[in-house]
Every structure is written in structure tokens, then in C-alpha cells.
Specification:
Largest sheet: 6 strands, mixed
Number of strands: 6
Strand content: 25-35%
Structural class: alpha+beta
CATH architecture: Roll
Radius of gyration: 14 Å
CATH superfamily: Sulfate adenylyltransferase
Distance between the termini: 12 Å
Number of domains: 1
CATH topology: Sulfate adenylyltransferase
Order of helices and strands: EHEEEEHEH
Amino acid sequence: MKTLKFRRRLMEEILAGRKNVTWRLFDDKDLKVGDNVELLCWENKEKFADAEIVEVHEKTLGKIEEKDFDGHERFESREEMLETYKKYYGDKVHCEDCKVYISPDAGIGQKKHRGSS
């Protein structure tokens, strides 16, 4: 099964339903509509929920619009956004023409669990 890792600070947002969109650069998982994924805590790799990918949109970081932030954490500036993704993906995030795969995750509220493997 495919997995998506999230920092611990985002887990509660996901479980509460406030974060239901993820942006992934350099999609090495080939995420597709209908994929069932396990959501893991990045720090300890423990599963905290299951989800289903219900949409996938591709655009560049430079084309991110206000509507793309619906269900996603916000950044104070484009610079903060780029720096955040550099922490996740390294220096290859060097420009605003990096492709972003925007995937709303559905069903988190119905499928959440903690401490299960």
C-alpha cells in the first residue's frame, strides 16, 4: 500500500478534518484517484489514519492560487512556502517551476485510527 508521511504537528489538523489536502513535489508514488493510502507520522513512521485519494491536480509552485490552500496549511509568504518545501525535499526545490501534485485525501474522519499498524 502507498504511504504518505506527515509531520507530527499536522496530524491533529488531519484527524480533525481541517487539513484534507496534501501537496507533493516530485511524486515518486504515482498518486492516482482511487488510491488507498496509509498516513504515517514522519517522525516515528507510525500509521495514524487511512485515506483515499479523490482528486489529483498538477501545477507548479509558481501557479499556486488562494483556492489551492483550501484544506491545506497556509504560509506567511511565498518565500516561507519555498523554504518549507526545501526542508522536506532538499535543495532541488530551487524555483517556482517545480511541479506540485495536489491531492485531497478523503475519508480521514471515517477511517482514522491511532496506534494501529
